[in-house]
Description:
CATH architecture of the largest domain: Sandwich
Shape: elongated
Amino acid sequence: MHQPCGVMAVALFVLLQPPVFASTPTSAAPLPAKTYSTTAIELFWPRATSISAVAGYEVVRDGLVPGVFDALSYYDEGLDPESSYQYAITTVDSGCARSETVEITVSTAASSIGATISSNDGSGIITGLHAIAYTSTAAELFWDCSQNPGLLYEIAIDCQVVAAIDGIRRVGD
């Protein structure tokens, strides 16, 4: 084919690219935590977003992976009293993309509940007394039920009576 003088044939190719989106899901930050007792804590995080559906949140405690959870919190129990634990939370989406890791250190409560068992007549009728510390200011006391009906139990904190009850447990702070 003959081309007129001074005219050049040019082929133009246009490369179309899809819009650029963030390739990783959002992180689980902020990461508040709640200490429930001397042996239990819970971590909370907001719902993450991703181009792909969020598959879950990978929880790591002190380098060990308890799992990937499809929830907005993680309850951890069986911990040691007065101990610190390092947690890392990473959002994972269905395409296996991972967010930046968010880290937090959480400490369990101190076991600082003590009890003195006494009875006015010296009979020692209170048995099985034990307590669960929920926070540094809240606890629950339990004891065995007496065989003597009609007894009132006085609960005192620092020698001040705070309750007189006829049951077998007391929750207070």
